[in-house]
């Protein structure tokens, strides 16, 4: 379901292009980073909700164990907050540098080689996701830009809701459209109006309230869809972003993530959603199904190569459309 018509020289994001599992050297980390000198690091250990919690704990920050409190009360004028964003910015700069020079991709599959070439051509980075919210995201983007002189770095104004806006503005429905972002910890929901130019936000659902043994399978997905339908004024089409790598609308066969096993519940996820599961729950059908970082990337278009980085439970990436 990826809108490849919007993207010049498109390629699908696959599990073997994951930043979360990419090896990163600690040599370039800030000297005051608690992970400086740590061997066998991955990007996930540097840039994720878990990584932020670990950093706050190591600093003895007043918001330790409470990343949402830290993000909502972040103040760059406070020395400890400034130190935190500087360490995180250096970590992100190291991850980007690693992605642009990652030998396993340069010597890997055809996809990995294409991904490596794209990273080397990137002119702009867009930071989105829950960890980019509010003032922390703005200061993070500015601090990263100061460390990556050859790149423009911007922070999405929609933070953790960027995927919802990407879906809504891509489909541009004249009628009401339900947009859903199925993340690893939360499910964000909104009704898009006026060709995707306005979103009416619904309450966020917690994944753990629906998951079974740490997974969202067909019964759990249907329960979420039915509960959401009961909150809507009437039937409408649905655009979905999913925290799972998709192979032409069906999850790749890889054992990671809480949504990947949906591939075992149907022959083709996008088709099954459109023809069976969504109509059975009172919707008119499927408008879009995207990998979550790809959905966020659709909210931005550039004339030169750009990459979306989503910072949340994990770290995601996808190329932004070229126009």
SS class:
alpha/beta
How much is the average pLDDT? 93
Strand content: 15-25%
Uncertain stretches of 5 or more adjacent residues:
1-10
How large is the radius of gyration? Answer: 19 Å
> SSE order, as H and E?
EEHHHHHHEHEHEEEEHEHEHEE
Task: Please give a quick description of this structure.
With 323 residues, the chain is of the alpha/beta class.
Word description of this protein:
- There is one protein chain.
- This protein has 323 residues and is of the alpha/beta class.
- The chain is 35% helix and 18% strand.
- The protein is built from 11 helices and 12 strands.
- It has helices spanning 43-46, 49-59, 67-73, 79-100, 103-106, 110-121, 134-147, 162-171, 218-229, 269-280, 292-297, and strands at 23-24, 41-42, 124-128, 152-155, 177-182, 186-193, 198-201, 205-206, 237-242, 285-291, 306-311, 315-319.
- Strands 5, 6, 7, 8, 9 and 10 form a 6-stranded mixed sheet that branches. Strands 4-3-11-12 form a 4-stranded mixed sheet. Strands 1-2 form a two-stranded antiparallel sheet.
- A hairpin with a 3-residue loop joins β11 (306-311) and β12.
- α4 (79-100) crosses α7 (134-147).
- The longest helix is centred in the first third of the chain and has 22 residues, at 79-100.
- It is globular.
- The chain starts with 22 loop residues before the first strand and ends with a strand.
């Amino acid at each position: 379901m990826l809108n490849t018509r919007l993207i010049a020289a498109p390629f699908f994001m696959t599990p073997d292009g994951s930043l979360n599992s990419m090896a990163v050297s600690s040599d370039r980390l800030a000297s005051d980073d608690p992970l400086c000198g740590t061997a066998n690091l991955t990007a996930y250990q540097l840039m994720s909700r878990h990584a932020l919690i670990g950093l706050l704990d190591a600093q003895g920050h007043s918001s330790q164990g409470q990343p949402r409190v830290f993000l909502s009360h972040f103040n760059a004028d406070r020395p400890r907050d400034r130190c935190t964003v500087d360490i995180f910015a250096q970590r992100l700069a190291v991850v980007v540098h690693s992605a642009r020079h990652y030998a396993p991709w340069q010597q890997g599959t055809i996809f990995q080689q294409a991904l490596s070439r794209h990273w080397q051509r990137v002119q702009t980075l867009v930071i989105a996701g829950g960890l980019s919210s509010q003032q922390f995201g703005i200061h993070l983007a500015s601090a990263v830009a100061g460390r990556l002189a050859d790149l423009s770095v911007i922070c999405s104004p929609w933070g953790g809701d960027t995927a919802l806006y990407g879906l809504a503005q891509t489909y541009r429905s004249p009628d009401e459209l339900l947009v859903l972002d199925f993340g690893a910890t939360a499910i964000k929901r909104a009704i898009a109006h006026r060709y995707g130019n306005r979103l009416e936000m619904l309450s966020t659902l917690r994944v753990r309230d629906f998951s079974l043994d740490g997974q969202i399978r067909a019964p759990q997905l249907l329960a979420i869809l039915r509960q959401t339908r009961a909150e809507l004024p009437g039937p409408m089409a649905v655009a979905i972003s999913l925290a799972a790598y998709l192979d032409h609308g069906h999850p790749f066969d890889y054992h990671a993530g809480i949504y990947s096993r949906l591939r075992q519940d149907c022959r083709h996820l996008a088709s099954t959603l459109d023809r069976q599961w969504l109509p059975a729950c009172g919707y008119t059908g499927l408008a879009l199904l995207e990998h979550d970082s790809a959905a966020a990337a659709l909210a931005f278009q550039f004339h030169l190569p750009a990459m979306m980085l989503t910072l949340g439970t994990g770290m995601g990436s996808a190329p932004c459309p070229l126009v």
